[in-house]
Amino acid sequence: VAATLRDAQQRLVSIEGLSTIGAMAAFYALLSFSRFAIFLYLSTLAIYYFAIVRHVGEGKDGMPGPTDDELGKTVSFAFRGVFCAVIGFAPALVYRIASDEGDPATLLALVLLGQTYLPAAVIAIALSNHTLAALWPVAWFQVIARAPSSYLRFVVLWIGSFAVGIGLQLVTMSVLDYNVIGFFAQAALWTGFWFAQAVLVGHYLRENR
Q: Which 3 state secondary structure label does DSSP give 68?
Protein backbone atom coordinates (compact mmCIF):
# COMPACT_ATOMS: atom_id res chain seq x y z
CA VAL A 1 0.00 0.00 0.00
CA ALA A 2 2.80 2.41 0.91
CA ALA A 3 4.49 1.86 -2.46
CA THR A 4 1.21 2.45 -4.28
CA LEU A 5 0.59 5.69 -2.40
CA ARG A 6 4.12 6.87 -3.15
CA ASP A 7 3.63 6.14 -6.83
CA ALA A 8 0.35 8.08 -6.82
CA GLN A 9 2.12 11.03 -5.19
CA GLN A 10 4.98 10.94 -7.72
CA ARG A 11 2.58 10.85 -10.67
CA LEU A 12 0.54 13.76 -9.32
CA VAL A 13 3.56 16.01 -8.70
CA SER A 14 5.08 15.23 -12.09
CA ILE A 15 5.01 17.92 -14.78
CA GLU A 16 2.16 16.14 -16.56
CA GLY A 17 0.17 15.70 -13.36
CA LEU A 18 0.54 19.25 -12.05
CA SER A 19 -0.06 20.85 -15.44
CA THR A 20 -3.23 18.83 -16.00
CA ILE A 21 -4.53 19.54 -12.50
CA GLY A 22 -3.72 23.23 -12.90
CA ALA A 23 -5.38 23.48 -16.30
CA MET A 24 -8.56 21.78 -15.14
CA ALA A 25 -8.70 23.82 -11.94
CA ALA A 26 -8.21 27.08 -13.87
CA PHE A 27 -10.99 26.16 -16.28
CA TYR A 28 -13.31 25.38 -13.40
CA ALA A 29 -12.42 28.55 -11.49
CA LEU A 30 -12.81 30.93 -14.43
CA LEU A 31 -16.14 29.49 -15.55
CA SER A 32 -17.46 28.14 -12.26
CA PHE A 33 -20.58 30.26 -12.38
CA SER A 34 -21.75 28.47 -15.53
CA ARG A 35 -23.51 25.15 -15.03
CA PHE A 36 -22.46 24.05 -18.49
CA ALA A 37 -18.81 24.75 -17.65
CA ILE A 38 -19.13 22.68 -14.48
CA PHE A 39 -20.63 19.87 -16.57
CA LEU A 40 -17.65 20.06 -18.94
CA TYR A 41 -15.23 19.98 -16.01
CA LEU A 42 -16.90 16.90 -14.51
CA SER A 43 -17.07 15.24 -17.93
CA THR A 44 -13.36 15.83 -18.51
CA LEU A 45 -12.59 14.60 -15.01
CA ALA A 46 -14.52 11.36 -15.61
CA ILE A 47 -12.80 10.79 -18.96
CA TYR A 48 -9.34 11.40 -17.53
CA TYR A 49 -10.07 9.28 -14.44
CA PHE A 50 -10.61 6.18 -16.56
CA ALA A 51 -7.69 7.13 -18.79
CA ILE A 52 -5.45 7.07 -15.71
CA VAL A 53 -6.87 3.72 -14.61
CA ARG A 54 -6.04 2.13 -17.97
CA HIS A 55 -2.68 3.91 -18.25
CA VAL A 56 -1.49 2.72 -14.83
CA GLY A 57 -3.15 -0.68 -15.27
CA GLU A 58 -1.10 -1.26 -18.42
CA GLY A 59 2.10 -0.56 -16.49
CA LYS A 60 2.90 2.78 -18.13
CA ASP A 61 4.85 5.51 -16.37
CA GLY A 62 3.69 9.05 -15.66
CA MET A 63 0.25 10.30 -16.62
CA PRO A 64 -1.74 9.68 -19.81
CA GLY A 65 -1.37 12.29 -22.53
CA PRO A 66 -3.77 13.70 -25.10
CA THR A 67 -2.77 11.10 -27.69
CA ASP A 68 -3.84 8.15 -25.50
CA ASP A 69 -6.91 6.24 -26.67
CA GLU A 70 -9.18 7.22 -23.81
CA LEU A 71 -8.74 10.96 -24.31
CA GLY A 72 -9.59 10.77 -27.99
CA LYS A 73 -13.01 9.34 -27.30
CA THR A 74 -16.33 11.12 -27.17
CA VAL A 75 -17.58 13.03 -24.14
CA SER A 76 -20.13 10.24 -23.72
CA PHE A 77 -17.43 8.62 -21.60
CA ALA A 78 -18.55 11.08 -18.94
CA PHE A 79 -21.54 8.82 -18.41
CA ARG A 80 -19.16 6.32 -16.84
CA GLY A 81 -18.81 8.67 -13.90
CA VAL A 82 -22.56 9.19 -13.70
CA PHE A 83 -23.31 5.48 -13.74
CA CYS A 84 -20.66 4.74 -11.12
CA ALA A 85 -22.01 7.46 -8.83
CA VAL A 86 -25.57 6.17 -9.18
CA ILE A 87 -24.80 2.51 -8.51
CA GLY A 88 -22.37 3.35 -5.71
CA PHE A 89 -25.00 5.31 -3.81
CA ALA A 90 -28.02 3.30 -4.99
CA PRO A 91 -28.75 1.56 -1.65
CA ALA A 92 -28.63 4.88 0.23
CA LEU A 93 -30.69 6.67 -2.44
CA VAL A 94 -33.40 4.03 -2.43
CA TYR A 95 -33.56 4.09 1.36
CA ARG A 96 -33.69 7.88 1.45
CA ILE A 97 -36.50 8.00 -1.11
CA ALA A 98 -38.48 5.26 0.63
CA SER A 99 -38.04 6.75 4.12
CA ASP A 100 -39.20 10.26 4.96
CA GLU A 101 -37.06 10.38 8.09
CA GLY A 102 -34.19 8.03 7.50
CA ASP A 103 -31.92 6.90 10.31
CA PRO A 104 -28.46 8.50 9.82
CA ALA A 105 -26.67 5.34 10.97
CA THR A 106 -28.62 3.22 8.49
CA LEU A 107 -27.97 5.73 5.73
CA LEU A 108 -24.24 5.69 6.44
CA ALA A 109 -24.20 1.88 6.49
CA LEU A 110 -25.91 1.79 3.08
CA VAL A 111 -23.44 4.32 1.68
CA LEU A 112 -20.58 2.09 2.84
CA LEU A 113 -22.36 -0.94 1.40
CA GLY A 114 -22.35 0.71 -2.01
CA GLN A 115 -18.62 1.35 -1.72
CA THR A 116 -17.94 -2.38 -1.33
CA TYR A 117 -18.98 -3.19 -4.89
CA LEU A 118 -18.35 0.14 -6.61
CA PRO A 119 -14.62 -0.59 -7.17
CA ALA A 120 -15.63 -3.77 -9.01
CA ALA A 121 -17.85 -1.72 -11.32
CA VAL A 122 -15.04 0.76 -12.00
CA ILE A 123 -12.58 -2.06 -12.74
CA ALA A 124 -15.15 -3.84 -14.95
CA ILE A 125 -15.38 -0.70 -17.08
CA ALA A 126 -11.60 -0.45 -17.32
CA LEU A 127 -11.23 -4.11 -18.32
CA SER A 128 -14.01 -4.15 -20.89
CA ASN A 129 -13.74 -0.51 -22.02
CA HIS A 130 -17.56 -0.49 -22.09
CA THR A 131 -19.58 2.01 -20.07
CA LEU A 132 -22.49 -0.37 -19.56
CA ALA A 133 -20.23 -2.75 -17.62
CA ALA A 134 -20.96 -0.47 -14.67
CA LEU A 135 -24.57 -1.65 -14.77
CA TRP A 136 -23.84 -5.37 -15.20
CA PRO A 137 -23.48 -7.12 -11.80
CA VAL A 138 -22.13 -10.26 -13.46
CA ALA A 139 -19.08 -8.24 -14.53
CA TRP A 140 -18.59 -7.05 -10.95
CA PHE A 141 -18.63 -10.62 -9.61
CA GLN A 142 -16.13 -11.67 -12.27
CA VAL A 143 -13.77 -8.93 -11.10
CA ILE A 144 -14.15 -9.99 -7.47
CA ALA A 145 -13.75 -13.68 -8.32
CA ARG A 146 -10.39 -13.04 -9.99
CA ALA A 147 -8.73 -12.37 -6.61
CA PRO A 148 -11.19 -12.24 -3.69
CA SER A 149 -8.62 -11.57 -0.98
CA SER A 150 -6.92 -8.84 -3.01
CA TYR A 151 -10.28 -7.28 -3.74
CA LEU A 152 -11.19 -7.27 -0.05
CA ARG A 153 -7.96 -5.46 0.79
CA PHE A 154 -8.59 -3.00 -2.00
CA VAL A 155 -12.10 -2.28 -0.71
CA VAL A 156 -10.56 -1.26 2.61
CA LEU A 157 -8.20 1.07 0.75
CA TRP A 158 -11.09 2.39 -1.38
CA ILE A 159 -13.25 3.14 1.66
CA GLY A 160 -10.25 4.86 3.23
CA SER A 161 -9.93 7.08 0.16
CA PHE A 162 -13.69 7.68 0.30
CA ALA A 163 -13.35 8.91 3.88
CA VAL A 164 -10.50 11.21 2.81
CA GLY A 165 -12.76 12.56 0.08
CA ILE A 166 -15.54 13.32 2.55
CA GLY A 167 -13.06 15.10 4.80
CA LEU A 168 -11.71 17.06 1.85
CA GLN A 169 -15.23 18.13 0.93
CA LEU A 170 -15.94 19.37 4.45
CA VAL A 171 -12.66 21.28 4.63
CA THR A 172 -12.99 22.96 1.24
CA MET A 173 -16.59 23.97 1.91
CA SER A 174 -15.80 25.50 5.30
CA VAL A 175 -12.39 27.08 4.67
CA LEU A 176 -12.19 28.27 1.05
CA ASP A 177 -13.89 31.45 -0.08
CA TYR A 178 -16.43 31.48 -2.89
CA ASN A 179 -14.34 33.43 -5.38
CA VAL A 180 -12.04 32.62 -8.29
CA ILE A 181 -9.07 31.79 -6.04
CA GLY A 182 -11.20 29.67 -3.75
CA PHE A 183 -12.77 27.82 -6.68
CA PHE A 184 -9.31 27.20 -8.17
CA ALA A 185 -7.97 25.78 -4.90
CA GLN A 186 -11.08 23.64 -4.46
CA ALA A 187 -10.91 22.26 -7.99
CA ALA A 188 -7.16 21.61 -7.73
CA LEU A 189 -7.57 19.64 -4.51
CA TRP A 190 -10.52 17.67 -5.83
CA THR A 191 -8.89 16.94 -9.18
CA GLY A 192 -5.74 15.75 -7.43
CA PHE A 193 -7.81 13.54 -5.14
CA TRP A 194 -9.65 11.83 -8.01
CA PHE A 195 -6.43 11.42 -9.98
CA ALA A 196 -4.80 9.76 -6.97
CA GLN A 197 -7.73 7.39 -6.52
CA ALA A 198 -7.55 6.50 -10.22
CA VAL A 199 -3.89 5.57 -9.75
CA LEU A 200 -4.89 3.25 -6.88
CA VAL A 201 -7.47 1.55 -9.10
CA GLY A 202 -4.90 1.26 -11.88
CA HIS A 203 -2.44 -0.46 -9.55
CA TYR A 204 -5.08 -2.99 -8.52
CA LEU A 205 -5.90 -3.61 -12.18
CA ARG A 206 -2.24 -4.15 -13.07
CA GLU A 207 -1.65 -6.56 -10.18
CA ASN A 208 -4.82 -8.62 -10.72
CA ARG A 209 -5.30 -8.87 -14.48
A: coil
